[in-house]
Design brief:
The complex is a heterodimer. The termini of chain A are far apart. In chain A, about 45% of the residues lie in helices and about 20% in strands. By secondary structure, chain A is α+β, with helices and mostly antiparallel strands. By secondary structure, chain B is α/β, with parallel strands linked by helices. In chain B, the strands form three sheets. Chain B has a seven-stranded mixed beta sheet, sandwiched between helices. Classes of the chains: A alpha+beta, B alpha/beta. At the A-B interface, strand 1, strand 2, strand 3, helix 2 and helix 5 of A face helix 8, helix 10 and helix 12 of B.
């Protein structure tokens, strides 16, 4: 399968890989399942002003899944939770030029953002 | 590493390069300067010499498997041979019964042919192999009914390289007067085949896994006791009516030469290949959470199918761009299911997704294997650093206890 240059770039040099130490200001989302071949873990650290200061990911999955999660960590930083929730799979798929069989990777990345935001909001009700 | 040509080809079970000796011989059967005749032309020199070349090739194929050349039917490859054997026998013997037994880990050429026969009203039992990939003979015996007319079991599995005990299966089939077909596409030149001894009635072959050309194969059809087939390809009545179509002289000559070389070299070649395979495995087996798929003992020398737990196969293949290998992972193919062969062994989806098949062959070098070990170790390490599953495993979390949000 031929990958786009952007997928290859994120795969070769993934941005923001890692784990943020958990506390009240951190939202963690984990989506997907090992049996399906991809699991994404996305963490966001939210400042007092409600802006996402930091984001980290770990992903088990194909190159497109790794690239999708790497990309969203870049995109969510500096955004409010509402703005981050606006990121849709179509944006991700377009940016990375994902082929149709890899669209599910971008859907998973969108789900990961939503799950991380939900987790943060639950902690900070 | 400057002398290594990248990418390194480690996919010999997918296909092999044509041996130069084979290509040279084939080249003489193409142009006006060579022998381009139709072997079926009985009225002139061109036809006679072409027929001689075909006869010689037929003898070479027969020699490798210890058969009579009159038992060899040329086809376009193992897929066609499987189709001709299974449909041909089922159609011919359908008055005797309508039950067929095969294995879940067979090649699609066998499984899909059986599916077609089901649509025609035949009943097919798809047996589960044991965890090591081998067929349980007691279970095979239990699956036989009064209606069973055909058993089809592959010799060497294409994904995991395990060798089925076709000698024992043949005895069971013969005792029960059942036709026994074996897909031997992956075994020529790798495992001894003696059809004087084996109670195999039909056996499928192809040239391109044994350093011959693509597009040519053969079906062995036993003469004593005689096995009958209904032709699937009709026309000029070539190949004793079993497979019509002008014989592809250059392809046939190529297959004959490839099989002649295989017979000559197989003992020393397999020893060298086994050494390389063992070196590859030794270089990887001390890593954590590494599993070999399929039996290591009853296995061809050149195959290593291995799962790296918590690493997804396609991303691993991507990291191994300098290697030509294949994966049992879903994403590498059009379908979204992981390898049905690994699933049939009872491997869970994660391990099936994280499998890589290395197949080593005639032109693989020691330097290539050493380089491969380095590459694989680095890639697995990198991807495990990226893997949330690896973190969870390291934290002692049982992944089966997690409620995953499947999608």
């Amino acid at each position: 399968m031929a990958y786009s240059e952007k997928v290859l770039d994120h795969y070769e040099n993934p941005r923001n890989v890692g784990v943020i130490e958990d506390d009240q200001s951190v939202g963690t989302g984990m989506v997907g399942a090992p049996a399906c071949g991809d699991v994404m873990k996305l963490q966001i650290k939210v400042g007092a002003d409600g802006i996402i200061q930091d984001a980290k990911f770990k992903t088990y999955g194909c190159g497109s899944a790794i690239a999708s999660s790497s990309l969203v960590t870049e995109w969510v930083k500096g955004k409010s939770l509402e703005e981050a929730a606006e990121i849709k799979n179509t944006h991700i798929a377009q940016e990375l030029a994902l082929p149709p069989v890899k669209i599910h990777c971008s859907v998973l990345a969108e789900d990961a953002i939503a799950a991380a935001i939900d987790n943060y909001r639950e902690k900070n009700q | 590493m400057s002398d290594i040509k990248l990418p390194i080809y480690l996919d010999y079970s997918a296909t092999t390069p044509i041996d130069k000796r084979v290509a040279d011989k084939m080249a003489h059967f193409l142009t006006i300067d060579g022998n381009f005749g139709n072997p079926a032309s009985r009225s002139h020199e061109f036809g006679w010499t072409a027929e001689e070349a075909v006869d010689e090739a037929r003898q070479h194929v027969a020699d490798l498997i210890n058969a009579d050349p009159r038992e060899i039917v040329w086809t376009s490859g193992a897929t066609e041979s499987d189709n001709l054997a299974i449909k041909g026998a089922a159609h011919f013997y359908r008055k005797k019964g309508n039950h067929i037994i095969t294995l879940k880990t067979e090649h699609k050429a066998v499984l899909d042919t059986c599916r077609q026969l089901e649509r025609e009203g035949f009943e097919v039992t798809y047996m589960d192999p044991q965890e090591n990939g081998l067929l349980d003979l007691a279970k095979l015996k239990a699956a036989i009914t009064e209606q069973t007319i055909l058993i089809s079991v592959m010799h060497v599995n294409n994904e995991i390289g395990v060798i089925q005990d076709i000698e024992a299966i043949g005895e069971i089939a013969r005792e029960n007067r059942i036709i026994f077909h074996v897909d031997a596409a992956q075994s020529t030149g790798k495992v001894d085949i003696d059809l004087e001894k084996l109670k195999v009635d039909l056996m499928s072959f192809c040239a391109h896994k044994t350093y011959g050309p693509k597009g040519i194969g053969a079906l062995y059809v036993r003469r004593k006791p005689r096995v009958r087939l209904e032709a699937q390809m009709h026309g000029g009545g070539h190949e004793r009516g079993m497979r019509s179509g002008t014989l592809a002289t250059h392809q046939i000559v190529g297959m004959g030469e490839a099989f002649r070389i295989a017979k000559e070299d197989m003992a020393t070649e397999n020893e060298r290949i086994r050494m390389l395979r063992d070196r590859l495995y030794d270089g990887l087996k001390d890593m954590e959470e590494v599993y070999v798929n399929g039996d290591l003992e009853h296995r061809i020398a050149g195959n290593l199918n291995i799962s790296f737990n918590f690493v997804e196969g396609e991303s691993l293949i991507m990291a191994l761009r300098d290697l030509a290998v294949s994966s049992g992972s879903a994403c590498t193919s059009a379908s979204l299911e992981p390898s049905y062969v690994l699933r049939a062994l009872g491997r869970n989806d994660e391990l099936a997704h994280s499998s890589i098949r290395f197949t080593i062959g005639r032109f693989t070098t020691l330097e290539e294997i050493d380089y491969t070990i380095e590459l694989v170790r680095a890639a697995v390490e990198k991807l495990r650093d990226l893997s949330p599953l690896w973190d969870m495993y390291k934290d002692g979390i049982d992944l089966n206890s997690v409620e995953w949000v499947a999608h």
